[in-house]
Amino acid sequence: MKVLQADAELRRLFSPAEQAAYLGDAWDASGQIAMTTDEARMRFEAPARGDLVIKGGYKAGEKNFVIKFTTEFQPGSNLGSNVANGAPIKRKLTLVGDAQTGVITAMLPERNAKDHDGETGFLIPQLDWAEIQNCLQASGDENVWHLQKEGFKAFSAGEVTIPKVIYLPFNGQGDLHLKGAHKKGGDIYVFKIATGFPGNRDRGLLPTQGLMMAFDASTGAPLIVLRDEGHLTDLRTAIAGRNAAEELMPADDLTGIGVLGTGVQARLQIALLKNLYPRCHTLTVWGHTPANSASYAREMTENGWEVSVVATPRQVADAANLIITTTPSEVALLDADDISTANTLIVAIGADMPGKIELSPALLKKADSVLIDSIVQGKDHGNAAGAIKDNVIAESDLQEFGDFLNKGLKNPEAGNKLRLFLSSGIGVQDLQIVQAVIMGGVNGWGQSQVPVMGGVRVKCQSHDSGT
């Protein structure tokens, strides 16, 4: 991604129609034709008071789309004497993306004569996936797990601000989601851009593209770009399953592990569980196709598992009392009658969008404890949505995972009975995984130093800001 230096460079990227649509006051003009836009706002109270407005827009038939971040912060005492006369800190950041592939290609940050840390100008480091992994390694697994748990706890305690999701469709070719989060009083806030363009396979690109960005919560300044291509989302999703298993299924109670699905999450979840339960070697798998199941079984066998491939999801439940569901199914794969072992934990990861379901409403009704990442989101996302809509269960039957981590199970007697963990993914997980990357950078493994926030410098080998 190229970092632009001036408005003139941004203008040269655009066709005349894009210039008219995306630049200046034309964005909000009522006469715009074939323009898709979405907008989100975010309010900050600490460490500084301020407001953020994000606008996403795409003019049909054009090459580029645009996302604009506009912030105004009232400087807090934490910035010291580097900020003169207490004037509001105003910033703008423009991202440009390819409307054919979803790839973010350029950004233009507003330049100030002096940034808040007293240095002339500022660099915006960009880390690729290999560099991100090195930072996470420097953070250490236990710190990464802990940060994710703390994020869930803060979310359920009402300490996390999550703005409305921005959604942009691209004429049937693909779509974009932009999600963000800020832990109240935290030094950074994070936004994630995730795009899905199936036609990318024909271009030699991944169908899913994406990046995460961290911003200084005192000034709105962009701090770092993580060009992870969606891998961080995969990782933080797998960590949620791993953490749920650690908290809810003691090793001594585990009789076997089962998985529904054979994709990325089926691999990542099992890899993390292997380290969590080193004495367990039994893995039962069901996949949508025999070929995928066979390929997955070979890979897991090479990784030290004793693998059984079965013909139905129910056979997985018969063989295992820790079951991970990782499919994009739109019909329930497991029903109440499929679970015969009382002490069973089901970690349901695949149903992350409206319309997706892996566990039947009757199974949710049967469960002694139903934990969920977000009750609000669960009302229209994933497994709980249909059960609530059909009045099979009520919202009061659910307990947020963070609330469980803070207070324990709402039903204390459910500890060795049927427990469910429903995950559709929430923004605080992205915030915390980026925090882990930054922590690893502060610990230091790379060669170059770049300014990050409040005088803290991240030591991570990074790409030149002009690439």
Written overview of the protein:
By secondary structure, the chain is α/β, with parallel strands linked by helices. The chain is built from 13 helices and 23 strands. The chain has helices spanning 7-13, 16-22, 129-139, 141-156, 231-248, 264-276, 290-302, 313-319, 361-366, 375-378, 383-389, 401-407, 427-443; strands spanning 2-3, 35-44, 49-59, 64-74, 89-98, 104-109, 126-128, 160-161, 166-169, 175-183, 188-196, 208-216, 222-227, 257-260, 282-286, 306-309, 322-325, 345-348, 369-372, 398-400, 419-422, 449-453, 456-459. Strands 16-15-14-17-18-21-19-20 form an 8-stranded parallel beta sheet, sandwiched between helices. Strands 7, 8, 9, 10, 11, 12 and 13 form a 7-stranded mixed beta sheet that branches. A 6-stranded mixed beta sheet has the order 1-6-5-4-3-2. A hairpin with a 4-residue loop joins strand 10 and strand 11. Helix 4 (141-156) packs across helix 12. The longest helix has 18 residues, at 231-248. It is globular. The model is unreliable at 113-121 and 445-467 (pLDDT under 50).
